[in-house]
Design a protein that fits this description.
heterodimer; A: 540 residues; alpha/beta; Rossmann fold; six-stranded mixed beta sheet; B: 325 residues; mainly alpha; MetI-like fold; two-stranded antiparallel sheet; ATP binding (chain A); P-loop_NTPase (chain A)
Chain lengths: 540, 325
């Protein structure tokens, strides 16, 4: 299926980082080929340099990064030696690229059709009307519903998956020989991700393109890859066919990565004793209304629609669903950042949903939250120790004692007491999430709500943080409400699972029941969409 | 149609706001020290009580405050802004006579500062870290920091006194009796110095803002997408970066536009420009309250009108607003 003449050939590529970076080279002596008709997956964790080679191919290297050795051969010429003007002629015409964030990768002020037509314009092809016709045909090809309407839409009027389809249409407009896809599905829901992967595979087969697919997710690799290149610290650690790398990894780092993938193998359920529930949620409703005007109807979104469940002391309940399913609203209601419209939230006998003002402030410490984005959830101007001690201090603990506790907590989450005097930016994503956990624990909560707490992290870091959560839960006899869109993560940590869709609970049961014997079609659909599932089944 | 509804809604709100402003202004003036009747009488050389009483009676100043307020508000509703005791003319006529001069001056300055500011800002953004870019920014900072009246005086010294290129004051050559095209040319010549002086400050602000906003926009993902399409840097700069960077400029331009009636006092005074600013200054000195109130009203009305226009322009520029609020 591949004709062995590589479309792209990277030879001994070395890219130097500017002085003062945490290492000397972004990539060092990297060599691999991408042939027509194959999907080459470049896998690695953040900071591995996996996107850098792609940027060099496109001539879009960040400022300060420059090639110092090697060559990038495309169509017989070394791309590194091209002038910016020569490079520009290749971009979009013979090499297309799609990016990770479909939300921000399109110009918010331009209609979709105009943005696609721009590709033709950039390379002086066709006249105005032909460009629009071509754009329409492309939108149709990438499977956008109602393409004649979508062509006149602005990006904000489309969903994330649709925007990524528009990006793909743009990248493929001039039938490039090489498509570079930089984490194209990372920001998407699991079912959307499955559709986009299928689309890319499909188009690649139909057009016989060479695809360079950059990802951090081995599940995705198992879905699409013909060949795999594993990178770490800017170097290639393993290179081979998808079969070889996935089933018989030679390098220990590859093995570690593969093992770190949260597996579908569900842990044995841990003691089914059912004491009095710690948290009891009954008939919770929450409707968001966009305020209508005199002439405009108000819009209503049912974020929570008659949601009921219980959570026993020491139990972990996983809430899974796609974006817009209401899972985050549920979490925010439980910590009372949001006030439910109706229904009750009882925490060990206290009616949490009715608390207000001072009473709410007094009880707040009992439920704490760990947020998704470890970069945005810590104040960059506060030292870590202060960030952790703030909560207890607000509750009347003297400063000295609170700071001492902060040290102990940082020790407990594995960062060491010296971390108290440092600022958040000095820590990596995984470390910041540990700080977030310490901050939540500082208030001695009974229940912790973790909202996508590991979603922003690399797989190996993800595994470590999940382990820490599990350990702390045992040690401090905590209960955990774990909100995630990632079913594999939920499977790993939860005792019972709640599947949500459109604000309703679709299915709930023990982790075993839900994953192995799903009753509802929607749950099955979600499970089927997990990338790399067949691969894992084959491995088992 | 969405815009028609929006405009009607906003105009209705504007009427309410104007009404409140009128009332507020009225009380503000009432609280100001000084008795207009006493001043009038003083200038007439007569200080006897009887004359004062007559004056008060004639201008309704002896009535209780609520009667004065009612008369004033109901007058405005019929576009009657009262009588200027000092100038012996209806306030409306005085204002309308001066308004064109001011609008010509401030309007020219507005267009000038906006166009040149955005141009200089985009040039500086494209030449970041280059000497030419730094020079633009240094000039912008200089204009931003220099007091307006000083710039005005220096401009007069340089261009009128030394070089003799441009007239130093006034709106047209007195006694020349120009008509038609010659008049336009004459006014244009007189306009250059005050308009440029007035434009410099806002031009400096637009320059700085455009540059900052463009540098921020150029970091966005969609710019990388545009580059990946193979578009030329100029197209990317104009179509993707500048368009997105202009959104905050619109807000600022709306603010500047709102000051078009009252914001040129200094410039008009220095250049003896026969506009509203000078009228207001004189009215203030002479405690010509009705005239002051009238000018306040016109300024407020213009601010509101430009607020509405800004909102509409913003909606045209950014499609995301329509479905939002």
């Amino acid at each position: 299926m591949n004709d062995n003449t590589p479309v792209l050939s990277i030879r001994g590529l070395t890219l130097a980082l500017p002085k003062g970076a945490d290492r000397e080279f972004a990539v060092e002596d990297v060599s691999y080929d991408v042939a027509a008709g194959e999907i080459m997956c470049v896998v690695g964790e953040s900071g591995s340099g996996k996107s850098m080679a792609a940027n060099a191919v496109m001539g879009l290297l960040p400022k300060g990064v420059r090639p110092t050795a090697g060559e990038v051969i495309f169509d017989g010429q070394d791309l590194l030696s091209l002038s910016e003007k020569q490079h520009r002629k290749l971009r979009g015409l013979r090499i297309g690229m799609i990016f990770q964030e479909p939300m921000t990768a399109l110009n918010p002020l331009m209609r979709v059709g105009a943005q696609i037509a721009e590709v033709f314009e950039a390379h002086g092809k066709f006249n105005g009307r032909e460009r629009q016709e071509k754009a329409l045909a492309l939108l149709e090809e990438v499977g956008i519903p109602e393409p004649d309407k979508a062509i006149r839409a602005y990006p904000f009027q489309l969903s994330g998956g649709q925007r990524q389809r528009v990006m793909i249409a743009m990248a493929l407009a001039l039938e490039p020989e090489l498509l570079i896809a930089d984490e194209p599905t990372t920001a998407l829901d699991v079912t959307t991700q499955a559709q986009i992967l299928e689309l890319i595979r499909d188009l690649q087969k139909r057009r016989g393109m060479a695809v360079m697919f950059i990802t951090h997710d081995f599940g995705v690799v198992a879905e699409v890859a013909t060949r795999v290149c594993v990178m770490r610290y800017g170097q290639v650690v393993e290179l081979g066919s998808a079969d070889e790398v996935l089933h018989d990894p030679q390098h220990e780092y590859t093995r570690a990565l593969l093992e770190a993938i949260p597996s579908n193998v569900i842990p044995e359920s841990r003691g089914a004793e059912r004491p009095a529930p710690l948290l009891e949620v009954r008939n919770l409703h929450k409707v968001f209304r966009s305020r209508g005007g005199l002439f405009k109807p108000a819009r209503e979104v049912r974020a929570l629609d008659d949601v009921s469940f219980t959570l026993a002391p020491g139990e972990t309940v996983g809430i899974v669903g796609e974006s817009g399913s209401g899972k985050s609203t549920l979490g925010r209601c439980v910590v009372r950042l949001e006030r439910p419209d109706s229904g009750t939230l009882t925490l060990a006998g206290t009616d949490f949903s009715e608390l207000k003002g001072d009473a709410l402030r007094r009880e707040r410490h009992r439920v704490q939250m760990i947020f998704q984005d470890p970069y945005a959830s810590l104040n960059p101007r506060h030292r870590v120790g202060y960030a952790i001690a703030q909560g207890p201090m607000a509750n009347g603990v003297p400063r000295k004692k609170a700071m001492q506790q902060a040290e102990e907590l940082l020790e407990m989450v594995g960062l060491g007491a010296v971390a108290v005097d440092r600022y958040p930016h000095e820590f990596s994503g995984g470390q910041r999430q540990r700080i977030g956990i310490a901050r939540a624990l500082a208030l001695n909560p009974e229940l912790i709500v973790a909202d996508e707490a590991v979603s922003a992290l690399d797989v190996s870091i993800q595994a470590q943080v999940l382990e820490l959560l599990e350990e702390l839960k045992q040690k401090l006899s905590l209960s955990l409400l774990f909100i995630t869109h990632d079913l594999r993560v939920a499977a790993q940590i939860s005792d019972s699972i709640i599947v949500m869709q459109n604000g309703r609970i679709v299915e709930q049961g023990t982790a075993q029941e839900v994953f192995l014997k799903p009753r509802e079609a929607y749950t099955r659909q979600l499970l089927d969409a997990i990338p790399g599932r067949e691969h894992e089944a084959a491995m088992a | 149609m969405l815009y028609a509804r929006l405009i009607v809604m906003r105009l209705l709100k504007a009427v309410v706001v104007l009404f409140l402003i009128v009332i507020f202004n009225f009380f503000l003036i009432q609280m100001a020290p000084g008795d207009p009747a006493a001043i009038l009488a003083g200038e007439a050389g007569a200080t006897d009580e009887e004359f004062l009483r007559q004056l008060r009676e004639r201008f309704g100043l002896d009535q209780p405050m609520y009667v004065q307020l009612w008369r004033y508000v109901s007058g405005i509703a019929m576009l009657d802004f009262g009588w200027s005791y000092r100038q012996g003319m209806p306030v409306l006529d005085l204002i309308l006579a001066r308004l064109p001069a001011t609008l010509l001056l401030t309007g020219t300055a507005f267009v000038l500062s906006l166009a040149l500011g955005i141009l200089a800002g985009s040039m500086a953004a494209a030449r970041v870290k280059k000497p030419s870019g730094s020079i633009i920014m240094a000039l912008a900072l200089l204009f931003y920091a220099t007091p307006l009246f000083w710039v005005a005086l220096m401009a007069v010294v340089l261009f009128s006194v030394f070089l003799g290129w441009l007239p130093a004051y006034g709106m047209y050559t007195v006694g020349a009796g120009h008509t038609g095209f010659a008049l336009v040319l004459d006014v244009g010549k007189h306009l250059i110095l005050p308009a440029t002086t007035l434009a410099l400050f806002f031009m400096a602000i637009y320059t700085r803002m455009t540059r900052a906003s463009m540098l921020e926009a150029s970091q966005q993902d969609y710019v990388k997408t545009a580059r990946a399409k193979g578009l030329s840097p100029r197209v990317i700069q104009r179509r993707h970066i500048l368009r997105n960077a202009l959104l905050p400029i619109i807000t600022l331009a709306g603010l500047q536009a709102g000051q078009m009636v009252g914001g040129a006092i200094l410039t008009e005074t220095v250049f003896a420009w026969p506009g509203i600013g000078r009228l207001m200054f004189e009215a203030l000195q002479q405690r010509d309250y009705n005239l002051l109130l009238g000018i306040f009203f016109f300024s407020a009305a213009l601010v509101i009108v430009f607020n509405i226009i800004t909102d509409l322009v913003y909606r045209l520029a950014d499609p995301r607003i329509k479905e939002g609020s």
